[in-house]
UniProtKB/TrEMBL annotation:
Keyword terms: Endosome, Lysosome, Membrane, Protein transport, Transport
Subcellular localization: Late endosome membrane; Lysosome membrane
InterPro entries: VPS16 (IPR016534), Vps16_C (IPR006925), Vps16_C_sf (IPR038132), Vps16_N (IPR006926)
Pfam family, one: Vps16_C
Species name: Neogobius melanostomus
Entry protein name: Vacuolar protein sorting-associated protein 16 homolog
Role description: Plays a role in vesicle-mediated protein trafficking to lysosomal compartments including the endocytic membrane transport and autophagic pathways. Believed to act as a core component of the putative HOPS and CORVET endosomal tethering complexes.
Residue intervals of the Vps16 C-terminal domain: 496-809
GO BP, sorted A to Z: endosomal transport; intracellular protein transport; vacuole fusion, non-autophagic
Length: 812
């Protein structure tokens, strides 16, 4: 696909840039009146390929060296001072950047806009003869290329090459040819080009960067590979003046690649043979190289010059007997109701080439521009495939759909004169993007539906672009735009109202953005934009409504950095969930902030808990006691008697521990009440342990358990015996038996067997291994479960005991 132009016939000085690419079709014209006055300014006009004006505005910036288009349909304007201004298709300014201070000082003499695997790039040559380039304007990295020996100012001609993902500059300085890369300037010589050919006046690189053409001072056209490793041809044009333009004309997989040269009133085609083809030109024209040909544009019309596709040659050449030609003729005779149609069909069938004939007609139809010829070829193909039983209809159906789309976009109201080859290279998705960029939304939607593209890849994508364009219209109110967008977009898959709202905000319509966000179902997409718009309160409310704690915390963190402390705290008081999350954060990261927050809210209970937590982080005892006292005061203010009492007892325990540490060196500081009692018992400080039990009203059962375990672990059996006799055990005497057995002292355990209550005596006897005693106790109690437990423990060799137990069970 090429970038085409409509040239105005008025008497103007016109600076024209025509960009050729398989993705863009536009022309930018910078016009300057012939009669200049101090107040006059140039105009920049943008046209579609069919000459429809898209934009026109007064150029108020500096002198322009080059205009060009990016791969995303953006207009680049390269100025003499090294500044590059970027506009969209409709003349709206988007952004600008500079090519560097050095370029600004030495001025830009020439510039070229090119396309590489990295994106759209710019190469310039300055007044001091130095080259600078960037391969991607969206990720600007300027590279200053090495100096060229003897070059002062602009070279005779130069071109940009992209080879092996590396961008180079090929230039001619008189008869010398150089290649500039990142690190070196290398003199090169085209293979087979005689030194007598003179200086190189013009050069051209093919669309794919694979081939190179050179025009010399003696009128020779040399063609070869762009790496200068092979020569294709050398043709004498008999012309001594340099052509205005020289471009390649080559189809993919072409048999005869050619170079097209244009002078003032002459068009010359040079191929691999020594002969040339010449066409006279009636008016000033412009050549636009394309993927599969060259477009010749004048002020009144445009023509496409290309190598005729091989399949078209076979069908339409004079006296052709190819299968496709015979099938086309057979269908013509069939429409005339002539019997010769049967003769042609028989001839095709006898050669077994009917499938090939159908394929040729289908393929040739794709290369035709005339709708009548397209229909004739497709009807012939449809006629032929009726006589085939195993022919797949897919190619025929596909070409019919594609031609219908191509004929629609070729209309002058659309202005996309694509060939079928360009369409296949472009892909449907990119074609839809181009229609969307031209704001041809109804046609884009119809193409999506006709080609049955998935909704989120087709119609939804078009609707998203439409909505983003709609919100930039200033002639409608916010309410009207929001209603229109909601009515049109609805719940289309893949269209997010947050993206549309972001576009509205970028266009200076924050209220419209808020209205659109109301239709966004995902809170996670609403909140970031609201924060960007400085609508913090609304963002916090939306985050809380979502129930997403991570999202709420994100908003809280943002508010903390953006607002002063007083306003921040007041904002959180209205959102309990946000306040709770922030308190959790402060507990870990910012304890002082938590204290201030609790003070502001008069949360005495929370302050009490804060002081308690702080006390346990305090290493010094005095500091810990002071913090605990503060906690007691706050709990009392909150009338939380339980917490206040518990805190006072903690202070009492700390003081008790300090006293014993000072007197006995017990190392009790920081232990809990139970751990403290265990430590005292292990140290043999029984009196102090009993005193602690009384002071803190520890239950007797708990204390007896602690002391029992401590004495058994120390194996202080005498003290354990005294302890058992001190008073009646609140926990019974089975635990005494258990701890003795656990510590392997059967003898000591038997002392407490008689004190064990009858209900626990069976278990105690079993612990001691006294089966006779366990049997007596179980028989005496007549307890079936206990009898069964003893019976299962009784060995098979003790038949007397087993019989006795079994009789007891039977009596039971």
């Amino acid at each position: 696909m090429s970038l085409l132009i409509w040239i105005c016939s008025c008497r103007l000085y016109i600076y024209i840039y025509i960009y050729e690419d398989e993705r863009c079709v536009f022309a930018a014209v910078l016009k300057e009146p012939q009669r200049r006055s101090p107040s006059s300014r140039p105009h920049l006009d943008i046209y579609s390929a069919s000459g429809v004006s898209l934009a026109s505005f007064v150029w108020k910036s500096g002198p322009v060296v080059q205009l060009g288009w990016t791969i995303s349909d953006e207009l680049l304007c390269v100025q003499e001072d090294g500044k590059v201004l970027i506009y969209d298709l409709f003349g709206s300014f988007k952004r600008h950047f500079s090519l560097g201070q050095e370029v600004s000082q030495s001025q830009v003499l020439e510039a070229k806009i090119f396309h590489s695997p990295y994106g759209s790039g710019i190469a310039i040559v300055t007044g001091c003869g130095r080259f600078t380039l960037t391969t991607n304007i969206d990720d600007l990295k300027l590279r200053r290329l090495p100096e060229v020996p003897g070059l002062q100012g602009a070279p005779c001609c130069w071109a940009v090459l992209t080879q092996d993902r590396q961008t180079k500059v090929l230039l001619s300085n008189g008869p010398d040819l150089y290649i500039l890369d990142n690190t070196s300037c290398t003199a090169v010589s085209p293979p087979g080009l005689s030194p007598e050919s003179g200086s190189i006046l013009q050069m051209s690189v093919s669309f794919s960067y694979k081939y190179l053409a050179l025009f010399t001072q003696t009128g020779l056209v040399w063609t070869g590979t762009s790496n200068l490793q092979a020569k294709l041809s050398e043709v004498d044009t008999k012309m001594r003046s340099a052509p205005k333009q020289m471009v390649w004309c080559r189809r993919p997989r072409a048999q005869q690649p050619s170079v097209v040269l244009m002078w003032e009133r002459l068009l010359l085609v040079a191929g691999q043979c020594s002969d040339t083809i010449q066409f006279p030109l009636d008016s000033v024209s412009v050549l636009v190289p394309e993927l599969d040909g060259v477009r010749v544009l004048s002020g009144s019309h445009q023509e496409l010059l290309q190598e005729v596709p091989l399949v078209s040659q076979e069908i339409f050449k004079i006296a052709s007997m190819s299968p496709g030609a015979l099938l086309l003729e057979a269908h013509r005779e069939y429409e005339k109701l002539s019997q010769r149609a049967d003769e042609y069909l028989r001839e095709i069938k006898e050669q077994c080439v009917l499938a090939e004939a159908v394929r040729q007609c289908v393929e040739a139809a794709g290369h035709e521009w005339d709708c009548v010829t397209q229909k004739a070829l497709l009807r012939a193909a449809s006629f032929g495939k009726c006589f085939l039983s195993d022919f797949s209809p897919e190619p025929f159906v596909t070409i019919c759909r594609e031609l219908r789309v191509l004929n629609a976009v070729r209309e002058s109201s659309v202005g996309l004169p694509l060939t079928h080859t360009q369409f296949k290279q472009l892909t449907v998705q990119v074609l839809i993007d181009r229609l969307v960029h031209r704001r041809l939304y109804p046609l884009a939607i119809e193409v999506c539906r006709y080609l049955k593209i998935l909704e989120f890849q087709g119609v939804s994508r078009v609707l998203r672009h439409w909505a983003e364009c709609k919100v930039q219209q200033t002639d409608l109110s916010d309410e009207a735009v929001a209603r229109a967008v909601c009515a049109k977009v609805g719940d289309s898959p893949g269209v997010f109202y947050s993206h549309i709202a972001a576009k509205a905000y970028e266009s200076g319509r924050p209220e419209l953005a808020i209205k659109l966000l109301e239709f966004e179902a995902r809170s996670g997409e609403q909140v970031p934009l609201l924060l960007k718009m400085k609508r913090s309160q609304l963002a916090l409310s939306k985050a809380v409504e979502s129930g997403d704690t991570d999202l709420v915390f994100t908003v809280v963190s943002f508010l903390k950095n953006e607002m002063n402390r007083g306003d921040f705290f007041m904002t959180l008081r209205n959102q309990p969930l946000a306040l709770s999350l922030y308190r959790q954060f402060c507990k870990v990261e910012e304890s002082q902030t938590l204290k201030d927050l609790l003070n502001q809210d008069d949360d005495h209970d929370g302050l009490g808990n804060f002081y308690v937590s702080a006390a346990f982080r305090e290493p010094r005892l005095e500091g810990r006691l002071a913090l605990l006292q503060n906690a007691v005061d706050e709990f009392n203010k909150a009338k939380n008697d339980f917490n206040a009492k518990a805190t006072e007892e903690e202070m009492k325990l700390l003081k008790f521990q300090r006293k014993l540490d000072e007197e006995k060196g017990a190392g009790l500081q920081g232990l809990s009440l139970q751990d403290t009692m265990e430590a005292l018992l292990n140290l043999g400080l029984h009196k102090h342990a009993e005193q602690l039990c009384r002071d803190f009203r520890v239950p007797d059962k708990r204390f007896w358990w602690l002391k029992l375990r401590a004495l058994a672990e120390k194996q202080d059996w005498d003290e354990l015996d005294k302890f058992s006799r001190s008073k009646k055990s609140p926990i019974g005497y089975l635990p005494f038996v258990e701890v003795c057995v656990k510590n392997h002292n059967q003898h000591e355990a038997k002392k407490y067997l008689l004190k064990v209550s009858p209900e626990q005596r069976v278990k105690a006897c079993l612990l001691l291994g006294d089966l006779e005693g366990a049997a007596d106790a179980a028989i005496e109690r007549r307890n079936e479960a206990e009898l069964g437990a003893v019976l299962t423990r009784c060995p098979a060799s003790n038949r007397q005991l087993m019989d006795r137990l079994q009789r007891a069970v039977a009596k039971k």
